[in-house]
Specification:
globular; alpha+beta; 3 helices; 24% strand
């Protein structure tokens, strides 16, 4: 496991959303829960900012966000 000092913090929200989009494109279904995507093993060397589904839907024209359950957001690539 990487030490905290070796993590790269992603502070640009647009870059973080682009990374989420790439993770969605890499999955055959093209969808995933936001919480799981933010903790995706592919992002191990990075520290992504905390984001909500509403924030992602307002910033991305290529990702649809649907709320399910009490507090889960599902991201789907358009």
């Amino acid at each position: 496991m990487l030490r905290e000092s070796r993590l790269m913090s992603i502070t640009d929200e647009n870059l973080a959303i682009l990374m989420l989009e790439s993770a969605l494109l890499a999955t055959p279904e093209g969808k995933g829960a936001l919480g799981l995507l933010l903790n995706n093993p592919a992002f191990v060397p990075f520290h992504l900012p905390v984001m909500t589904g509403d924030f992602v839907s307002q910033r991305s024209e290529r990702i649809d966000v649907f709320r399910y359950g009490l507090d889960e957001d599902l991201l789907i690539i358009r």
